[in-house]
């Protein structure tokens, strides 16, 4: 089941499939059992990257608490 369409936003943000995969891997570490929260945070990170509020590098390197504010 998919909760959020983060793939389209990732494309809008200019992320490659490899970059999205890396972002998903990093965020999955924070939400290993909660698919909805995982997808929500991937979506929020992609939106932040798309809107220029964060870079991919910041999203990948941020501490869990910092990522939640993206």
Shape: globular
pLDDT average, as an integer? Answer: 91
How many separate domains make up the residues?
A: 1
Largest sheet: none
Q: How far apart, in Å, are the first and last alpha carbons?
A: 24 Å
* Uncertain segments: none
Order of helices and strands: HHHHH
Overall structural class, as computed from helix and strand content, comes to: mainly alpha
* Strand element count: 0
Helix tally equals 5
Beta-strand percentage range:
under 5%
Rg for CA atoms:
11 Å
Helix coverage percent: 55-70%
Q: What descriptors fit this protein?
A:
70 residues; mainly alpha
Explain what you see.
Helix 1 (6-12) runs parallel beside helix 3 (35-50) and helix 2 (17-28) packs across helix 3 (35-50). The chain has helices spanning 6-12, 17-28, 35-50, 56-61, 64-67. The chain has one domain. By secondary structure, it is mainly α. It contains 5 helices and no strands. The radius of gyration is 11 Å and the shape is globular.
List the helices and strands and how they pair.
Blueprint: H1 6-12, H2 17-28, H3 35-50, H4 56-61, H5 64-67
Helix pairs in contact: 1-3, 2-3
């Amino acid at each position: 089941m998919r909760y959020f369409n983060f793939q389209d936003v990732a494309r809008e943000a200019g992320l490659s499939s490899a970059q999205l995969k890396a972002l998903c891997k990093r965020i999955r570490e924070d939400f290993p059992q909660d698919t909805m929260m995982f997808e929500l945070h991937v979506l929020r990170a992609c939106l932040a990257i798309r809107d220029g509020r964060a870079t991919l590098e910041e999203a990948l390197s941020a501490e869990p608490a910092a990522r939640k504010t993206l």
